[in-house]
Design a protein that fits this description.
The longest helix has 37 residues. It is built from 18 helices and no strands. 78% of the residues lie in helices and 0% in strands. By secondary structure, it is mainly alpha-helical.
């Protein structure tokens, strides 16, 4: 069986890490550390499950299934098309891609402007440059390992190591008292924070690009491509765990000395100012810019590849340019409104993605266990959509959701998912008996 040399496997893993590691991934761990205080590592364990474990499993599930469309097809072909399309639109041009520019602008440009209030022209020019770079790099998706894995990601990791090393050698303080939300059940709270990173959804998209990069390195056998893609997923997961832990520690010592800020960005800002003064702000700006650009490139590449499969007459470059242009417009004039629509959509999709991934391991033969997929995904989807409508302020349309198990913990969809799973198993077993 063909295998990648260890050095190349690490490069592919770093490429996948860089595609996962965007602005949200930078912000959540420091804020978790500042909030959890002495409960930091219990909270980090929960965070790791949903922010690392499920995304890695997502890469593995897609690689083993031969693509997201085939995996979702275990439920129904029509579901596969709609679900896949919603995922690509949600974390693509409708939300995640525009947010990479707007977030990096807030962290990499605004702190250096006089008065701190940027004009519309300044933001537009920044976004234009940002998306031009992302578009040019994404034109060759099979070369992302050379450009992200070899260049951008090492720079990003080096800057994070500098901040972490500073907090170890010259800490601002010690771990503080846990906030109320992390005082009683820090593991569950960390679990939910990781859930909000939405990386599990991204994992369902990134597998195809990583497979392309593996093939570009000379691996041609399908089984070998799958195996190397899975191993790259575990490499990325290991790097994510190390970086998240480092950032959580930085947040914990900063929060213990300076108090809990409004968000993780403010916590990091306080940390670098304390450690390196104004030079720290430049360092933090570079971190946010690189992280957001890497994620933007990965998302443009994945979305463009997918849309080439459903509208093959339109080439990859045209799709990449279209997504860059649309994202440029949204990042400047419509992000807040798009967020209001997209966040409930993402909250509806995420539980479905989790259940689909877990089913791929528990019931890998989708044809044999088709009823399991259909029942569990249907009940999960209906419940998560209703919960999302409630979060959007439409609770008067759907009374009684608060009676669901684990509702208060934000996991009300788990009970229906298990119910659907059991119903599907019984239906399959009954079908076998009738045939025999």
């Amino acid at each position: 069986m063909e295998r990648l040399p260890k050095q190349k496997l690490v490069l592919v893993g770093l490429t996948l890490f860089s595609m996962f590691f965007g602005a949200g991934n930078l912000i959540f761990p420091p804020f978790l550390g500042a909030s959890a205080g002495t409960n930091i590592w219990i909270a980090m364990a929960g965070f790791a499950v949903t922010a690392i474990g499920f995304p890695v499993l997502g890469v593995v599930a897609v690689a083993k299934s031969g693509g997201l469309n085939k995996l979702a097809g275990h439920v129904h072909p029509r579901f596969a098309f709609i679900f896949t399309l919603l995922i690509y639109l949600s974390i693509g041009p409708c939300l995640a891609i525009p947010r990479t520019a707007s977030t990096s602008f807030e962290m990499a440009v605004v702190p250096f402007l006089k008065g701190g209030s940027p004009g519309a022209l300044t933001q537009f020019l920044y976004s234009a440059v940002f998306f031009t770079i992302a578009f040019v790099v994404s034109l060759k998706p099979d070369k992302l390992t050379d450009r992200l894995g070899k260049i951008m990601t090492p720079c990003l990791l080096a800057l994070i190591v500098v901040i972490f090393a500073g907090s170890v050698v010259h800490p601002a303080g010690s771990y503080g008292i846990p906030s109320k939300s992390y005082g009683s059940n820090p593991f569950v709270k960390g679990f939910l924070e990781g859930y909000l990173t939405m990386d599990t959804i991204a994992a369902l998209n990134f597998g195809i690009i990583i497979s392309l990069n593996v093939q570009a390195m000379g691996i041609k056998q399908e089984a070998s491509v799958v195996k190397e893609t899975i191993q790259a997923g575990f490499v990325a997961g290991g790097v994510l765990l190390a970086v998240y832990s480092a950032l959580a520690h930085v947040g914990a010592v900063t929060g213990g000395a300076m108090g809990l800020g409004e968000n993780g960005a403010q916590t990091l800002n306080q940390a670098v100012r304390f450690l390196y003064g104004n030079g720290g702000l430049v360092m933090l700006a570079a971190i946010f810019f690189i992280a957001c650009l890497n994620t933007c490139i990965g998302l443009i590449s994945c979305c463009s590849r997918y849309f080439c499969t459903i509208v093959p007459k339109v080439g990859y470059r045209v799709w990449a340019f279209t997504f860059a242009l649309v994202s440029l417009v949204i990042s400047n004039i419509g992000l807040t409104r798009i967020l209001e629509i997209s966040v409930p959509v993402l909250n509806a999709i995420y539980p479905i993605a989790i259940v689909l991934i877990l089913l791929s391991f528990g019931f890998p033969d989708g044809r044999k266990w088709k009823a399991v997929y259909a029942c569990s995904i249907s009940l999960t989807g209906i419940t998560s959509v209703l919960l999302s409508l409630e979060q959007a302020g439409l609770s008067f349309l759907i009374p009684g959701l608060s009676m669901l198990p684990l509702y208060d913990m934000g996991l009300g969809w788990i009970g229906p998912a298990i119910t659907g799973l059991l119903a599907g198993v019984l239906a399959c077993l009954a079908g076998y008996r009738n045939r025999s």
